[in-house]
Amino acid sequence: MSSTTSKVLGGFKRLMRARQSLFTGDERAMRESRIAIRTEYVKNRNVTDPVQIEGLMVMADEATDMLLHGIVRGELNQDKNAYEVKIKKEHVDSMDSETITHVDPITAETSLNEETGNPDVVVTSTSGKGSCGKH
């Protein structure tokens, strides 16, 4: 196995582990993220230009970092009509004072809509840094 092949496979494995870390317990997100990652790797399977391969590896590393540090998962608490989001230490380290108390929903299904009554997002810090807020 060539050095490039092992680097590419390593990037693939890191992405898969990051998605598992983020989406554990969410079968839909696990399935869709697996398909999306695999699709991108298959799409670029025949790339041979070292510069282009390096660029793709940088993108894979950035995606891994985003999954591990830039995205938080919330769970719907139907009693409170809110998505509860726990901010972990690795997320706090990459957030500023404004973003630590505000989470933007990813999909239309999870966004706050006054007219339809979709749930709020409640941010809970799991470290001493930051504060809790309802958005």
Automatic annotation (TrEMBL):
The keyword Phosphoprotein does not apply. GO terms for biological process: mitochondrial respiratory chain complex III assembly. Residues 94-135 are annotated as: Disordered. Its main location: mitochondrion. This is Complex 1 LYR protein domain-containing protein. The keyword Transcription regulation does not apply. One of its GO terms (cellular component) is mitochondrial matrix. It is found in: Mitochondrion matrix. Residues 7-66 form the Complex 1 LYR protein domain. Keywords: Chaperone, Mitochondrion. GO terms for molecular function: protein folding chaperone.
